[in-house]
Amino acid sequence: MEYTIKQAAERVKLPASTLRYYDKNGLMPLLKKTSYGTRQYSETDIHWLELVRCLKDSGMPLDEIKAFMMLCLEGSATSEQRREMLELHRANIERQMRVLTRSLGVINYKLDHYNEIGIFHIDKD
Amino acid sequence: MEYTIKQAAERVKLPASTLRYYDKNGLMPLLKKTSYGTRQYSETDIHWLELVRCLKDSGMPLDEIKAFMMLCLEGSATSEQRREMLELHRANIERQMRVLTRSLGVINYKLDHYNEIGIFHIDKD
DNA sequence: TTACAAGTTAAAGTTAGGTTTAAGTCAAGC
DNA sequence: GCTTGACTTAAACCTAACTTTAACTTGTAA
């Protein structure tokens, strides 16, 4: 089954303009077009887009996602390199989670002690 | 104890240019300057900056942080409004953590099954 | 008193990740 | 055969959050 850009956009919950932007920036090197130029998203393309969303939503820059894609294209010779990228990214996600957990602790503390707090209490509560 | 911008920058681990930027954009309405114009960071300013970092690092836009600051200046009349802001922000942090957890699961799954994966395996592993 | 370090400003430049616009192509329904 | 709707492109525009630059002032040390 193949999808138009609009259908693909609905499936991965990104605007069509974003899908065009990703394609233009080399994130979809395998994407096919019909003879008169419209993009045709295959199931594989959709799955790749879902991975792109997952990586992007967890803070990987598009540049890096593209680099990962390029390594995929080069086949199994690059699998060790790709594993390393994912491991670095995992560490990065874990770091982000620690930052969020720490901030959440501060917010929760503030909320627990939030009776008549003003600017002059910033350093005391 | 008062700090120069450089000392404050070191304490809160932000570049001095960022501290100037924050001041210029109204995030530091209580910051004092010496008679010849250099910024003087008090302990209270430092604590406020630490809260700014905490909010910013957990994804609150500077606009909103500034709005929060302004409410603080208005005193206890706005405490309910500030509590609401913090509660919305807490919910936002929790949402971010769910996104990260979900992505982490995908990455971990990929890493666990990472033997000879290429582009053509994107949809199968 | 001269030079240096540290501060100041306004304004311009940067980066990431898009979105919007303008002008055009194509196939189908009426 | 004409309009409509979905697609295309290149290029311009946008926003957040800074950073850099250029020109300037000020206090301190030699």
Instruction: List unreliable stretches of 5+ residues of chain A.
Output: none
**Which class do the helix and strand fractions of chain A yield?**
mainly alpha
Strand order of the largest sheet of chain A: 1-2
CATH C-level label of the largest domain in chain A: Mainly Alpha
User: What number of domains of chain A?
Assistant: 2
Write down the oligomeric state: homodimer
Radius of gyration of chain A: 21 Å
Helices and strands of chain A, in N-to-C order? HHEEHHH
CATH architecture of the largest domain in chain A: Orthogonal Bundle
* Biggest chain-to-chain interface with counts: A-B, 46 and 46 residues
- Coarse morphology of chain A: flat
User: What is the overall number of helices of chain A?
Assistant: 5
* Percentage of residues in helical conformation of chain A: 55-70%
Portion of residues in beta strands of chain A equals: under 5%
If you consult CATH, what is the topology of the largest domain in chain A? Multidrug-efflux Transporter Regulator, Chain: A, Domain 2
- State the end-to-end CA separation of chain A: 59 Å
The major beta sheet of chain A can be summarized as: 2 strands, antiparallel
Number of strands of chain A: 2
The overall pLDDT average of chain A reads: 91
